[in-house]
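dumping this here before i forget
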Amino acid sequence: MSENTRTVFLESGAQTLELQKYTLTVQNGQNEGLSKSFKSRQVEIGTAPDTGLILDDETVSRIHAKILVDENGYALIDMESKNGTYINGLRANEVYLDNGSVFKLGETEIKFSLSDEEVEVHFSGSTHFGSLLGSSLEMREIFAMLERVAPTDATVLIEGESGTGKELFADAIHRNSNRKDGPFIIVDCSAIARELIESELFGHKKGAFTGANTDRDGAFIAANGGTLFLDELGELPIDLQPKLLRALESRAVKPVGGNETVKCDVRIIAATNRNLIHEVKEGNFREDLYYRFAVIKVAIPPLRERTDDIAALVESFIASASKASGQKAVDISYKTMEKLKRHSWPGNVRELKNFVERAVILTQDNQIETKFLNVNSAPKDRDLDTDGSSTLATKAITEDVPFKEAKNHLIESFEKAYWKQLLEHTGGNISKAARIAGVHRKSVEYILKKLDLTRTDLG
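structure:
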């Protein structure tokens, strides 16, 4: 056990990890002088805009490495980066850092420093929170937060990749709140026509627009006394955001075509798979609205980062799928379970659930096999056909991929193919590519980081 960290086990089964605040300082490289302090148990480092320490070094991978704190100390873990992680001139996959250690990612040297400030990270003693399931430290840390947050009326922003179950988290918060007997209203900001979102949220008066034949209450009024869940918040049009901000601040709405405001007693939970901080910097999301939502932030880790939960999730999904299909329970071998733990699960928990349901229905010997696993579920450049179309839509129909997920995958595949071809055409000249595409150069740089495209890929 490290002298700088300590785990305390409580009688309830809960745990507390005591650690020291730490600082990462770039000593050499493109971001020399950049310094950031952290109090969290884990921090990712890379060029991706949603990492804890964002680097501009082209030799650094999108998510290059991470620091993970446990009872043994502060571990530096390489995330299968292209150019490796080095400390004292030696390449390292995982190594514990000492105070003052210097490590190198690509061409960037970073110093790790501990402060005297102590921080406590709490882990729930339960492996459940509502319908949510997880025995990993990652999930139990979230459960500990939700146990404290759910009974309050605090606004919550849930962040996570597609398929991580953001709606289930929102529902669990509602069901464990003092509003559990009130309504739980869901508005998917990405699934409503732009011109109808204001009416959907705030309601409208008869005659307000073509087709408004009667008065209609919006989601805020419908959620009165309960919880309003705004899914895909990042898709909200910029011109509607000031009205939403006013509604959040006043807890009152003005229906479209109306002159009077209506008070609403609602708790707000929102979710997004976008990096809203970057959207703020790009001018696509209001900064004041972001901070109004981000009172409490819950970051759901992707399934690939909490493989300890896979076995319990599989058993739970098997039981549910067997009951729904009327079949007797099926088994899963140790070998098959280990294969599932090694799978990357780009579709996260949703993909795992779909796999189990499909396997339970198709198995003929009451034994789940990985032959039912879609090993090519992650979209690749080859998903784009030579005529510019995609086979992904067909895959979505045959592989039970939800519409939003298939759409996101298709867009990502198109973006990667588009920018790769355009930059090859301009010889890697980002400024020229930006002019041709009609996009600001900074936006192009962000897109390339997001898609993990480097000049090496363009060669």
